[in-house]
């Protein structure tokens, strides 16, 4: 993934913190400033409730109708959601997908039947 012209390699500099202990010794710690994180597919995220998410809907055609909704609905607030930039034409592809048309046709047939 490329964001703002970054080529995929991001240098991470080591951070060193120094302090004086209670007994007067000078101490220091050197570490990389990383935060533990994880990623999962939209399918595996179903049922999760997350406080912060980064959603990459991408440009590819959706395999299952509704995956974009599942991805967007995992987050508890709009403030905790970051959307990776994408083209709005992405949603036009979803609305014209053959899976969506088949589901709409099946629903129409179900609702048109008379209930006894």
UniProtKB/TrEMBL annotation:
CDD domains: SF1_C_RecD (cd18809). InterPro entries: P-loop_NTPase (IPR027417), PIF1_helicase (IPR051055). This is Uncharacterized protein LOC113216175. The gene is LOC113216175.
